[in-house]
């Protein structure tokens, strides 16, 4: 079977502690801020399974517009675990961002 190369990445989401610092970090790498907004209410919680939630989000895009990075800062409910304290062999995204 012939190996396929990744052509695009539609959306990746990362939960962050500081939205401002993380946006600045990715702007420095060349991504563009598409928008920033609050997402609140039970309807949003049905998507995540977290119930009534309040989340500040920012959507960033690569300069070619083909890939998106969704940054989320949870206000409610509070973050209950911090992956930075997880062992290196834990499941999930384990690299720290600002």
From TrEMBL:
<protein>
    <recommendedName>
        <fullName>VOC family protein</fullName>
    </recommendedName>
</protein>
<dbReference type="InterPro" id="IPR029068">
    <property type="entry name" value="Glyas_Bleomycin-R_OHBP_Dase"/>
</dbReference>
């Amino acid at each position: 079977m012939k190996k396929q190369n990744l052509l695009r990445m539609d959306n990746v989401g990362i939960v962050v502690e500081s939205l401002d610092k993380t946006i600045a970090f990715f702007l420095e790498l060349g991504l563009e801020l598409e928008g920033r907004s609050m997402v609140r209410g039970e309807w949003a919680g049905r998507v995540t399974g977290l119930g009534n939630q309040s989340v500040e989000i920012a959507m960033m895009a690569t300069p070619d517009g083909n890939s998106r990075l969704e940054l989320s800062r949870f206000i409610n409910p509070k973050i209950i675990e911090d992956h930075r304290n997880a062992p290196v062999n834990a499941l999930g995204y384990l690299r720290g961002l600002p």
